[in-house]
Write a structure and sequence with these properties.
heterotrimer, A mainly alpha, B mainly alpha, C mainly alpha, A: mainly alpha, Cytochrome Bc1 Complex, Chain D, domain 2, 2 domains, two-stranded antiparallel sheet, two-stranded antiparallel ribbon, elongated, C: mainly alpha, about 50% helix, about 5% strand, disordered C terminus
């Protein structure tokens, strides 16, 4: 009978302890993390604002994280570094502005933690969002036609109109990105965790 | 001989209990039918969304014109329909009826629970619309925005109140092991749900802390909500159907307490290799490996109870589904513990392997047990019989073969995907191409399971609209206290 | 400490207290004794041990007496 008392108390303490252990202590431990200054004196990670923040909301609203992670595994655990997905593993400090987190748990598509550094071309990203298989043959990423609009060419071609490698799909018309697409690409361009942090030598 | 004489001796005492049982089932009728019927509706809807998502994975040009049907929205819509629609509502239906049966007390707060069922459906619909129009939170398993989560929490409070009230009014002195499990679900889970929602969506956590909170919660949806309800149901229905008590009752209690001790630590194994403190992830691994203890106790116990009664699987639909679910529980738990080891996780993490594992838990274990429970429960609540034995068998085989066909290829495909992804010489798009055949297999399996669900939906509709013209020898004889010849 | 943390801890404490009272009750009422009788508590005179309570439905007229 006494053993049962201890068993029950043990259960209780464990549930509370798991909350403290898995939620409260890491929070205390990680809450104090501050940005670091890079070589140019810029604080890293960058705090998202303006278009980048709006683009992050698009990333969340469109559910990109169901296929893309944003975390680079350490040396000797997977092949993230060898694949060129980053120059170092990502650390807790990299995520201090991430509310809510978009670290992801699935890699149907490649990791995006450093996509801004790996693919800096906005034109590439826009074309890829519009029709992924134009830039990445064999990709299973869905098209995002709803982030773009058809526009009749009046006098001159809009500067941000998509240029298709195999020629214009509809003569006299061009595809232009909406503000949402531009925001999303601004966010993707901001994803760059290649700055040095004290945790990783 | 002795059994018969015992029945005769107790027949007079049986009279008040007989009235009580009919009364108990009648008190459950409307609220439980509402939750169960809604659950089956969401099951069918969730299966269709699953099919859309599954097809998109190998044929990305499928339905891309409409933003609300883009993969990143269909997938969370499917998850929330099946977890908060099907699994949770079927779970609540079973929990309420089971607790009334265990306590031999009538279900209280009938109208409040009916209102709760309606509100739950409204909140879920609203949450799904929000996800579809881009207001989802993209925090896995907590995609529905905070406001609707609070509405769910309010319904949980009503269920909790009903559960505690029935317990207070119970007419049986002993607290059966199923009751302990149900308490685990009904008292712990709402707390976990509310806390995780407030911490993450209230803006009180950021970055990696929020990710830890996220997986502490998401894993506990299985561990401290669906698993206890599923196991409580198994521990009640297997002995009830075959008419023999649990093989080792104290082992079952040991299983409960060790589940309570270890399961809620396991969640952070979803973040192995991630940017979190190493000790945090190690705790998750230790918790996951310790789960071997409750799993082994449950597995042995279910098997030993069934020994000598396996031929009953031929005549009882409930037993088929429930035993299939119980066996899957052992498989999924052993797989889960192994998967949390770093060397295995290095390969399977980030791949379809994890998706297959999740379906083994939620479908092959939990959903199959719920099917069994509904087949047992609903005739007793409606007073009508299922319309067709053939359709029930079709449902069982479509579901059983469907999940086997789902889990097998996707597990292998996910493992191959993981090995290839860890080989930096192989271009990423080649890894993607390698998964396509397995993903077609998944779609085929999904079609099979969806057929099963539609059949189940039809059987339920037929019953609600007046019942098939069938009768059940096992049940009618049980009601008179007699025995069924094998 | 933000108000939500107080709320969270309030829930934790309430949870703990309810569980402790549950435990005290369980011990006082001998829930941890007499396992064999406990296992049989779901059976009664109406559905005693040995009664099968589930089977496939049969078409009317084809089933036995």
């Amino acid at each position: 009978m006494n053993r049962a008392v201890w068993l029950y108390l043990g259960v209780l303490i464990t549930v509370i302890a798991s909350f403290v252990g898995l939620v409260q202590i890491p929070d205390r431990q990680l809450r104090g993390l501050q940005p670091v200054k890079d070589d140019l004196g810029v604080e890293r990670p960058l705090r998202p604002d303006g278009g980048v923040l709006a683009g992050r909301a698009e990333y969340i609203g469109l559910g990109c994280l169901y296929c893309h992670s944003q975390q680079v595994r350490p040396e000797g655990f997977g092949a993230d570094l060898a694949r060129g997905w980053g120059v170092r593993r990502t650390v807790a400090r990299d995520y201090i502005w991430d509310v809510p987190p978009v670290m992801g748990t699935m890699r149907t598509g490649p990791d995006l933690a450093n996509i801004g550094a790996r693919q800096p071309s906005n034109a590439w990203h826009l074309l890829h969002l519009y029709r992924p298989r134009l830039t990445s043959p064999g990709s299973t990423m869905p098209e995002h036609p709803f982030l773009f609009a058809w526009q009749r060419v009046e006098l001159q071609r809009p500067t941000d109109a998509l240029s298709f490698p195999e020629g214009e799909p509809r003569p006299g018309w061009v595809v232009v990105p909406t503000q949402r697409a531009r925001d999303l690409v601004a966010y993707l361009g901001s994803l760059d965790h290649s700055y040095a942090v004290p945790e990783v030598r | 001989m002795s059994t018969t004489s015992m029945v005769v001796e107790q027949s007079e005492a049986a009279q008040p209990e007989l009235v009580a049982r009919a009364e108990i089932d009648r008190s459950c009728r409307v609220p439980v039918l509402l939750f169960a019927g809604s659950a089956v509706f969401w099951l069918v809807a969730g299966s269709l969304m699953a099919l859309v998502a599954a097809i998109k994975m190998h044929t990305p040009g499928f339905l891309t014109e409409w933003e609300f049907l883009t993969f990143g929205r269909v997938r969370p819509v499917h998850l929330n329909m099946t977890i908060f629609g099907w699994a949770s509502m079927a779970g609540i239906a079973t929990l309420l009826w089971l607790q009334a049966r265990l306590a031999r007390a009538c279900l209280p707060f009938g109208n409040l629970l009916i209102a709760g069922g309606v509100v739950w459906n409204v909140a879920l619909t609203a949450g799904l619309v929000e996800i579809s129009i881009g207001h989802g939170t993209s925090v896995e398993w907590i995609e529905i925005p905070l406001f609707w989560a609070l509405v769910f929490a309010a319904v949980f409070a009503v269920v909790m109140a009903a559960s505690l009230t029935m317990f207070g009014r119970r007419k049986v002195a002993h607290v059966y092991v199923s009751q302990w499990y149900l308490f685990g679900a009904v008292l712990w889970f709402p707390f976990l749900y509310l806390t995780a929602n407030l911490l993450i969506h209230g803006g009180f956590t950021a970055g990696t802390t929020a990710a830890a909170t996220n997986w502490w919660f998401a894993h506990n949806v299985l561990g401290l909500w669906l698993t206890p309800i599923g196991l409580a149901t198994i521990y009640y229905l297997i002995p009830k159907v075959i008419g023999a008590p649990i093989h080792s009752y104290h082992l079952s209690l040991l299983g409960f307490w060790s589940l309570a001790l270890f399961y809620n630590w396991a969640g952070t194994h979803h973040l192995i290799g991630g940017p979190l403190p190493a000790w945090l992830v190690t705790v998750g691994i230790v918790g996951s490996v310790m789960m071997f203890v409750p799993v082994v106790t449950v597995g042995i116990n279910h098997h030993m109870t069934m020994v000598g009664h396996f031929r009953r699987l031929k005549d009882s639909p409930t037993l088929r589904f429930v035993v299939f679910g119980g066996m899957s529980y052992t498989v999924v738990s052993v797989q889960g513990s192994l998967t949390s080891l770093r060397s295995i996780n290095e390969v399977n993490h980030f791949t379809h392997y994890t998706i297959a594992h999740a379906h083994l838990g939620v479908y092959a274990f939990f959903s199959m047990v719920m099917f069994g429970a509904l087949y047992y429960m609903l005739p007793r609540l409606t007073g009508r019989e299922w319309g067709s034995a053939r359709l029930i068998k079709l449902h069982f085989w479509a579901a059983a073969l469907g999940i086997a066909l789902y889990w097998g290829p996707l597990t292998i495909g996910g493992w191959v995907q993981g090995l290839q992804m860890n080989n930096p010489d192989l271009p990423f798009l080649q890894v993607v191409a390698g998964t396509i055949p397995y993903l077609w297999g998944r779609t085929a399996a999904g079609v099979l399971m969806t057929v099963g669900h539609c059949v189940f939906g039809l059987l339920l509709l037929q019953m609600l609209r007046g019942g098939g013209h069938a009768q059940n020898p096992a049940r009618s004889q049980a009601a008179t206290g007699g025995e069924v010849k094998a | 400490m933000s108000p939500v943390y107080w709320l969270v801890w309030g829930v934790v404490v309430a949870f703990a207290l309810s569980a402790v009272s549950g435990l005290v009750w369980a011990i006082q009422h001998g829930q941890m004794e007499r396992f064999a009788a406990g296992a049989r508590s779901i059976f009664d005179a109406e559905e005693p041990v040995g009664t099968v309570t589930d089977g496939f439905p049969r078409r009317e007229g084809r089933s036995g007496p």
